[in-house]
Specification:
Blueprint lengths: L2 H19 L17 E4 L1 H10 L2 H10 E3 L7 E4 L7 E2 L2 E2 L7 H5 L2 E6 L3 E8 L1 H17 L1 H14 L6 E7 L1 H13 L1
Antiparallel strand pairs: 1-3, 2-3, 4-5, 6-7, 7-8
Helix pairs in contact: 1-7, 5-6
Length: 184
């Protein structure tokens, strides 16, 4: 896949995740574990844009905690060993200017050599609700997948923190799933 098509696919996946996420909010019971024990990568332009759009104290915190990223194409990263340094009382101090990786969470877009990019959904309190709806959508199209996803939902419905378990979201299902959410 050429570079232009890869960027188009990445942008398409971002738009789909945002279309899904607008139907959900993090529950009050969430302890913001997405902001703990993760490395948040920034592209250079994103990092610079965030620095320009946040208060001076937040910019200084970001500068002090950002490191050169190991990930190809990324410029800086925050390694949230204990927790993200921009997290205060389980709330992000730069929420309106947070990085793309944080905006898309619990979705993770990963590089795939054949397809360019793929999409997974990490388990957290909010994503359990997404899984429940995804299972309901599958109930209409594939009873086997409905049963599997419903079992995942039942197993994790009381989750209170992130879990390393994830499910892959199939691209060809995204538009139909979004339509399902909009009709709900």
């Amino acid at each position: 896949m050429d570079k232009r098509k890869r960027f188009e696919k990445y942008d398409w996946l971002i738009s789909k995740t945002q279309s899904i996420l607008k139907h959900y909010i993090c529950p009050e019971s969430c302890n913001a574990s997405c902001c703990r024990h993760h490395i948040i990568d920034f592209h250079r332009k994103e990092y610079e844009k965030i620095l320009k759009n946040v208060d001076k104290e937040s910019a200084n915190i970001l500068k002090l905690n950002a490191i050169k990223s190991e990930l190809e194409g990324c410029y800086k990263a925050i390694n949230a060993v204990e927790k993200c340094p921009l997290l205060i009382n389980s709330k992000c101090r730069i929420y309106d200017n947070r990085p793309e990786a944080c905006r898309n969470f619990p979705f993770v877009i990963f590089q795939d050599l054949e397809a360019g990019f793929g999409l997974t959904l990490l388990l957290c309190p909010m994503s359990v609700n997404i899984i429940q709806d995804y299972a309901q959508w599958y109930k209409l199209v594939n009873s086997t997948m409905y049963s599997k996803l419903n079992a995942v939902y039942e197993q994790y419905k009381n989750i209170d923190k992130n879990n390393d378990f994830c499910i892959q979201m199939k691209e060809h299902n995204l538009d139909s799933f979004i339509e399902f959410l909009e009709r709900k």
